[in-house]
Amino acid sequence: MIIEKYKVERPALAIHGGAGRWERAKAEEEKYLDVLEKSLLKGYEHLRSRNNRIESVIEAIKVLEDSMIYNAGSGSSLNIAGEREMDAGLMDGESLKAGAVTLVKNTKNPIELAYLIYRYTDHMIIGCHGAEKIAEYYRLEKPPAIPKHVFDRYKETLKNIDKVEYIRRNKDLIDIYKEEIYGTVGAVAIDIDGKLAAATSTGGIMLKLPGRIGDTPIPGSGFYSDSYVACSATGIGESILSISLCRSIALHYRYTKDLEKSVIEAFRELERIWGKNTAGIIAISNNNTLIFAYNTTAMARGYKDPNNIYYRIF
Ligand code: GLY
């Protein structure tokens, strides 16, 4: 597992653009890095000028969702039927309030829709037509057509479906996913007062079965924030769900008060069952420690605080 640890100054924002092998991105790394930088600058501006941690993670994620090249929003991977089915969620560490949407097809920015659930409903997770109805009511933008490169990748994978051994049990599904994970985007923020927020958005794993729900819209799994830790996860949803990865890290932190140890402990548990090449996280604690960790080849990641901006994939 690769771990990077930073001591940041407040306010600070960190993002990820998915853990995986990133084979295809090698030739176009600049394009991906450019989007990471834009996302950090946009999200950080909301944190700096308004001290609004929730807005900052939303704004950072919207840049990634709109980029067409990360697996979230307009660039989402397609399910086996060739459709987008997007998930997103966010959580405020102070109130423990969360909002999430799942299996959304007709919304350009699922993270915005998750925010509407958080802000205007009594619920935490709303799926499918129920979520779309709220998007319609609030007149959220519809997504653009599926980009050609996403559709080409879908067709190519579909053509080789025998090789990728797609429709087998979850353990085998992981083997497909090891081939290419352009999975998921996320953000965590700490404001000037040390309050935290987390958010995650995804198109899910490529060629998933229609109706499959991964970790991303589930508080505690794909995202989590309390007063001590904010965390966003990426990778194979089933592995992350099985140990509630983000909440596991937060719970370990309550006892250890050591974020790095907490992340290592949670990954040990995850890897015991699911092995390597399965997940990545970004996590920040209220004592300003930031961790990037992944057991894949690479993870698009970055952070910005008052003094530094940092972003990379490999
Ligand atoms: N981590 C994204 C997913 O499995 O859907």
Can you give a write-up of this model?
- It contains ten helices and 13 strands.
- With 314 residues, it is of the alpha+beta class.
- It has one domain: (Glycosyl)asparaginase (Glutamine Phosphoribosylpyrophosphate, subunit 1, domain 1), CATH 3.60.20.30.
- The strands form two sheets. An eight-stranded mixed sheet has the order 5-4-3-7-6-2-12-13. A five-stranded antiparallel sheet has the order 1-11-10-9-8.
- A hairpin with a 4-residue loop joins strand 12 (298-304) and strand 13.
- The chain is globular, with a radius of gyration of 17 Å.
- The chain starts with a strand and ends with a strand.
- The protein binds glycine.
- The site of glycine has 12 residues, from strand 9.
Q: CATH superfamily membership, which one?
A: (Glycosyl)asparaginase
Low-pLDDT regions: none
Could you give the count of β-strands?
13
Number of helices: 10
Total domains, how many? 1
Question: Could you say which overall geometry the principal axes of the C-alpha atoms support?
Answer: globular
Measured by DSSP, the beta-strand proportion falls in: 25-35%
Largest sheet: 8 strands, mixed
Mean pLDDT: 92
> Could you please say which CATH topology applies here?
Glutamine Phosphoribosylpyrophosphate, subunit 1, domain 1
Overall helicity = 25-40%
CATH architecture: 4-Layer Sandwich
- Which sequence of SSEs, written as H and E, runs from N to C? EEHHEEHEHHHHEEEEHHHEEEE
Short structural description:
By secondary structure, this protein is α+β, with helices and mostly antiparallel strands.
